[in-house]
Amino acid sequence: MGAQRYIGADERRARLALRQRLAGRARAGTPEEVAGALVALHGTDPATVYLAVGARLADPARTVEETGRALYEDRSLVRMHGMRHTVFVFPTALTAVVHASTGLAVAARERAALLQHMATAGAPDAAWLKEVEESALAALARRGQATAAELAQDEPRLREQFVYAAGKSYEGMHTVSTRLLRVLGVEGRVVRGRPLGSWTSSRFRWAVAPAHADLDTAEAQAELLRRWLDACGPATEADLKWWTGWRVTEVRRALSAIGAEPVALDEGTGYVAGSDADPVPGPEEPWAALLPGLDPTAMGWQQRDWYLAPELRPRLFDGSGNVGPTVWWDGRVVGGWAQRPDGEITWRILDEEGVGREALAAIEAEAERLSGWVGTTRITPRFRTPLEKELTAG
């Protein structure tokens, strides 16, 4: 076996710029193209989906309208639970792969936990719950989309409550509708529908999930990993285990199944999809981007030193490891941004290396571009970071 080809930080940034649709000429034409290129858009903060799409569109003027169309009219994108028990937005064609590769195991645990908690509280049994859920799903199918409260009008048993963790410091009352809809979501039977408010709202209706085929778990894991390496490779085993939430044995099995090729990285051995080890030329011009909190590029890898200096992390991440809004210059995070109460997009450079007049002008242009399509909407990240708070207050 020959020596592994070395892929350094510069080439990894070149791959990132082109495959993550961030360099100017690599930008996409539609939200579906963006989601397909990235595999998944973080959906925990609803605004992130739109901001991540807008940052990558060649013409972001209709970001809100086109992303809403894809999510709620064409249903070409779907918001559902995925890797690490986190909500993402995926291309609808990928839902079967995501469900089989990551959802099934989590779903089994979630249902077992719900039944155990109900039994401990003396609530009705599994047969009762099954009857309620079938009734609720039928009501949802009739309505098309509905909130939990609306479904409870059709199936009043959804309002039943039970005590969770009785006697513990975190004791509380759980409503059947809240827990059951969460389980059905993880099981891939329901998905989030239209929000009750604007595109930044976190209050969603529910809808019956699009039908999808039942896939073999190992085959689905191989397919998901292949897609992710095409978009984000190279990556280490640690990156892959973190992003997927799988066991290391599952990661290694999937790498073997797709014939992933090992390469040398500064962090050690990494992997690319088979035949993707050839050098990748960088974009023709340096590029700037303002990416939102939880953006899939900023959160794409566990080991981030090649694009994010460790000394910047305390200002750009919250206490749970969630990244806030970031400013990028030519493949590196160099600062952060925020929206002030009056709507102004403001930003600050934290790493001045290589950030000259050209970079500052490009970053300012991106801030104006963002402000142009966001308009009068006010955006507050769900997970706030020290720098974002400073910029907002300032």
Descriptive account of the structure:
This protein is 42% helix and 16% strand. A hairpin with a 5-residue loop joins β13 and β14 (345-349). The protein folds into 2 domains: 1-75 and 215-394, no CATH class; 93-208, no CATH class. The termini are far apart. The protein is α+β, with helices and mostly antiparallel strands and 394 residues long. It has helices spanning 9-19, 31-38, 46-54, 63-72, 95-120, 126-143, 148-154, 176-186, 217-232, 237-244, 248-257, 313-316, 357-374, 386-393; strands spanning 41-42, 77-81, 87-91, 145-146, 161-164, 172-175, 190-195, 204-208, 261-265, 268-272, 288-291, 326-329, 332-339, 345-349. This is Winged helix DNA-binding domain-containing protein. InterPro entries: AlkZ-like.
Taking all residues together, what is the mean pLDDT? Answer: 93
Total tally of structural domains: 2
How far apart lie the N and C ends?
57 Å
Work out the helicity level: 40-55%
Strand residue content: 15-25%
Main-sheet strand order equals 11-12-13-14
Largest sheet: 4 strands, antiparallel
Q: List the total number of helices.
A: 14
- The topology string of helices and strands comes to HHEHHEEHHEHEEHEEHHHEEEHEEEHH
What are the low-pLDDT stretches, counting only 5+ consecutive residues below 50? none
What form results from the Cα inertia axes? Answer: globular
Taking all Cα atoms into account, the compactness measure Rg is 22 Å
Structural class: alpha+beta
Annotation, overall tally of beta strands: 14
Protein name: Winged helix DNA-binding domain-containing protein
InterPro entries: AlkZ-like (IPR009351)
Organism: Streptomyces qaidamensis
